[in-house]
Input
Amino acid sequence: MIKIKNLVKKYPVVNPNKSLKQRVKETLKLEKKSLLTALDDVSFDVKKGEIFGVLGPNGAGKTTLLKVLAGFLLPERGTVSVNGFDIIRERHEVRTSCNFLRAGGWVIFDYKFKISTMLKYWGVFLGLPLSEAEERINYTLEKVGLLDKKDDYVENLSYGMRQKLNLARCLMTHRPVYLMDEPTTNIDPYSADFIRRFIQTELRREGATTVLATHNLWEAEQVCDRVAILMGGKILTIGTPDDIIRKYALDTAVIQIKPITDDIRKKIKALGFVGNVVPESDLVMVYGKDLPKNIHKILEVCYESKTKITYLDIKKPSLNEVFIQLMRDKNEQ
Ligand SMILES: Nc1ncnc2c1ncn2[C@@H]1O[C@H](COP(=O)(O)OP(=O)(O)OP(=O)(O)O)[C@@H](O)[C@H]1O
Ligand SMILES: [Mg+2]
Output
């Protein structure tokens, strides 16, 4: 559904201390040194119907990537196709294949409009006949839980309600690709949960392909089939949340073994899947790969050594922990 190959996107860097004349000259010249590379050789595909997460620290290039996919920005290099259309040669088709939910509760059209009027105009603006646009208003407002606000003015909506209105706006037309830039940022937990369920159920039912930029890694783990972690415009890693967690982090088993001896600790550490064994008061922390699957081997060591396990808990690392570790490692390099 989406194919991205060697995508490079650069922005001109304008020095605010220079005069306007100099800045215009610099921007037009687009010298190499005055360009900032926001996306650097990015390649990946998104399958039809997939919910694909784009993660990364501030300035990583997430919004830029979504804007390129939506046909709003042209890349300097690389090829990108969305819904089978090339973003340069078939830009109009790309734009009409995508619904773009922008970050920040951004609402297009006049704040003085009633919500129903705004949606009607938006529908017509997107090419719906007036009667169809009017028909879809109730449907979309109901889907996002804003039907009771139909006759309110946009300017009276809270931030979260505006974000839901943006979702309703996206639903006015049937488009196969949803590009969502931080749809749950600054949204209350209940409404954020609503939006996540909406993506997981409604958009999946529609068979839509969703690219979701988010800072909420728990959300990414819950909602996304696969994620890409971007940093400095480059892809650090890509895969299912589970694969990424398994690739970069070890599970932790907290075990109470009675009596615990150095010999048992050594035997546990010698098991192929164990990375480290750290004693902590009367417990041992065992760090290892796939512990839920391998834990019986630790139990066997204890059994053979005639000791008892009185407490056992296995913790899977979260995508959040892996992300923080990856960022730390990168920043220390
Ligand atoms: N219009 C622009 N002109 C110049 N530079 C820009 C422009 N938009 C973004 N950038 C730069 O491109 C880089 C990527 O920005 P982008 O907005 O894509 O990051 P992001 O991952 O969405 O960050 P955030 O998490 O803060 O939303 C940043 O260094 C940013 O300063
Ligand atoms: Mg952004």
User: Anything to note?
Assistant: The two ends are 36 Å apart (CA to CA).
